[in-house]
Amino acid sequence: MRTNVNPTAEHPRARTGTGAGPGRDRRPSVTDRLAASVADLTIFGRRVRDILGDLRRRPVPTHWTNLFGVVTLACLVVLTVTGLWLMFFYTPSGDPTTYDGGYAPLHGAEVSKAFASTMRITFDIPGGLLMRQAHHWAALLLPASIIMQLLTTFFTGGFRRPRRGTWVLLFLIFVAALAGGWSGYALPDDMLSGTGLRITEGVALGIPVVGTWVASLLFGGPFPGEIIARLYPLHVLIAPVTLFGLIALRGLVAWRVGPAQFPGRGRTPSNVVGVPLLPTAAARAGGLLLIVTGVLLVVSATVTINPIWLYGPASPGDAGAGSQPDWYTGFLDGALRLVPPGWEFVLFDRTWTLAILVPLAVVTAFFVVVAVYPFVEEWSTGDHRDHHLLERPRDAATRTGIGVAGIVFYGTLWAAGSADLIATQFSVTIEGVIATLQVLLLAGPVIGFAVARRVCLGLQRRDRDVLSHGFETGRIVRLPGGEYVEVHRQVGEDQRARMTRPEPRLVLVLRPDDRGRLTLARRLKVRLSRWYLADTIDSDTGERIMPAPIPSGRSAPTGGASLRPTMRP
Ligand code: HEM
Predict the structure, then answer these.
(1) C or N terminus of the chain, fewer CB within 10 Å?
(2) Other beta carbons within 10 Å of 37
(3) Mean pLDDT, all residues of the chain
(4) Ligand 1: does its nearest atom lie under 6 Å from the Cβ of 128?
(5) Which pLDDT score is estimated for 540?
(6) 491 vs 510, which has greater pLDDT?
């Protein structure tokens, strides 16, 4: 049940709500009296009481998009508990040893101590396989839940001021999770992780000028060098500490700015409608956390993941057919696979391997665009206002189109990571799959953008019709004058509040600066703003937003603001 709770007086978006009903009078128990005296008499008690009071007054909006944060937390709990357990039995060393553990087919094989210890965890230590699999399944779910958070935040505009920082932090959390997964994937030192490391070495060596140094810094000698010993601290210390640090920082920033909420009846930019953080939201989150943990354990107990005994130990000269990275690094592999053959040239006595440089540049550029998108959107739309109400994806058609283009781009790279499997499963040529994906990588985002944007604009028009005429009921009645009309059912108050865009759009009008100049940057900004808003329906007037035309040449100075936000029907 949704309740309006009374946020603290200091809360910037405080408002008076209905609050919880009065509790029944009852005689305080001994523990109640003891707790009250501890809370009253000690500094620590008073501090804890204040914090608990804050948490009880803190409203949390209820929406399914909030669930992904809890899934992320559940994964981290499982990763930490199982990871700490694994540390007791795992040996981070590439030194050779002879395998003589519980898996007979590998008896007598020369393997690394890392591989031997992972095999020991799997076959000889009670519960070891479950722990390994729980660790691995949680590592697979973690990036998925973070990506879902990124997507829901993106498509609802939850990254706009004052939450640009939380977006960047969420993106960094994603990168840290990728680093954690990649470094853990290499630790068992099996054939699959060895293949992955070989690709990493190749990419490092392909970087011009500094490549050899980067590879030797990472591997500490000829492949495989000391990579296991070097990745271990990165995996068990640096990546988890960075992850937890970033999550704590994001939580702190989110606490300070407060939650954003979807529009609805009674919801305004200056209030927060939801359930109290303590105990309601916390109990719900705790329940979901337990459910996710339970599901992870059930899956880990029943579904095999990373069967290193089938892959065998890493061998620098071998790679298994159909090798696949964990799903979250598949896009990096795919970027390498999509480069046409022979992309390299010699300059200044060095070979410049475009087959590595181009994928590196493309993936880096994609990541940079994702990280800075809130700033780009704010600059190009000139909308520097704070937004506490989220938008439905259809109401920001261009942003939704950009998001879909990004998904198609990422998805194509990801599919390319499995190009060989697609070819064998569907009995088609690998060249055909690669060529199709190359075309899709270039044309797919453009088509995805255009289709998604058009669909959003169509939905906006449908909403406008529904808001102004109501829903069609299919009931035709004949009027006394003989005229036939269809009866329309008017939209209810709740639904109207949800369907109406909460804040008006800003349309930039180009005005010359004090010296009468219309600079290139200003022109670009206004053009971008017009492109962003073109054909959008203004939910107040129900009309298309028509940005003012951009004047050409120099104009007389105005002495006023150079970019004027305005609404035009
Ligand atoms: C406190 C945090 C962590 C500790 C102490 C830890 C520890 C370990 C250890 C000792 C191993 C080697 C044992 C083995 O491979 O079976 C391992 C493997 C692995 N770790 Fe972690 N880890 C932590 C966090 C993470 C995180 C955050 C991720 C991913 C985001 C992750 C992903 C992996 C993966 C994919 C493996 C390979 C598992 C396998 O053998 O199939 N770990 N971890």
Answers:
(1) N
(2) 11
(3) 88
(4) no
(5) 61
(6) 491
Give the span between the Cα atoms of 375 and 264, in whole angstroms.
27
Strands (E), 189-289: 275-276
Cα–Cα distance measured from residue 506 to residue 57, given in angstroms and rounded to the nearest whole number: 34
Tell me whether strands 275-276 and 344-347 are parallel, antiparallel or unpaired: unpaired
Output the pLDDT for position 544: 65
Whether 139 is in the pocket of ligand 1, judged by its Cβ within 6 Å, is: yes
Q: What is the dihedral of CA 258, 259, 262, 265, to 10 degrees?
A: -50
Taking the centre of ligand 1 as the mean of its atom positions, its distance from the CA of residue 127, in whole angstroms, is 16
If you measure from the C-alpha of residue 152 to the centroid of ligand 1, how many angstroms do you get, rounded to a whole number?
A: 28
Do 438 and 338 touch, CB atoms closer than 8 A? yes
The CA–CA distances, whole Å, from 456 to 7, 107, 153, 172, 392 equal: 35, 61, 17, 30, 10
> Is residue 52 within 8 Å of residue 278, measured between CB atoms?
yes
Most confident stretch, 14-18, 412-416, 535-539? 412-416
**Higher-scoring residue by pLDDT: 493, 247:** 247
Residue 117 has which token pair? 């210890």
Cα(149)–Cα(247) distance, integer angstroms? 13
Q: Where would I find the beta strands (DSSP E) of 342-432?
A: 344-347, 350-353
Contact between residue 129 and residue 121 where contact means Cβ atoms under 8 Å apart: yes
Two tokens at 450?
A: 């255009």
Strands (E), 121-175: none
Q: What mean pLDDT do residues 346-364 have?
A: 91
> 442 Cβ partners below 8 Å, 6+ apart?
none
The gap between the terminal CA atoms of the chain, to the nearest Å, is 39
Query: Hey, what long-range contacts does 309-312 have (CB within 8 A, 24 or more apart)?
Result: 309/103, 309/105, 309/106, 309/119, 309/122, 309/123, 311/190, 311/191, 311/192, 312/106, 312/109, 312/190, 312/191
- Dist. CA 184 → ligand 1 center (Å): 5
Q: What is the CA radius of gyration of the chain?
A: 29
Whole-prediction pTM: 0.88
Alpha carbon of residue 477 to chain centroid:
51
- For position 562, what pLDDT does the model report? 38
What digits encode the pLDDT tens for the residues 54-108?
899 999 999 999 999 999 999 999 999 999 999 999 999 999 999 999 999 999 9
Instruction: Tell me whether strands 484-489 and 471-478 are parallel, antiparallel or unpaired.
Output: antiparallel
Which domains are delineated in the chain? 64-391 (1.20.810.10), 507-566 (no CATH)
Tokens representing 530 are 């017009």
Ligand 1 atom nearest the C-alpha of 326 is 35
10 Å CB burial of residue 406 (0-12, 13-18, 19+) is buried
More confident residue, 549 or 264: 264
Residue 458 phi, psi (nearest 5):
-60, -40
Q: Quick check: 565 pLDDT over 60?
A: no
Ligand 1 centroid vs 412 CA: distance in angstroms?
28
Q: How far is the CA of 242 from the centre of ligand 1 (A)?
A: 15
Q: For 349, left (φ over 0), alpha (ψ -120 to 50), or beta?
A: left
Nearest CA to ligand 1 atom 6: 83
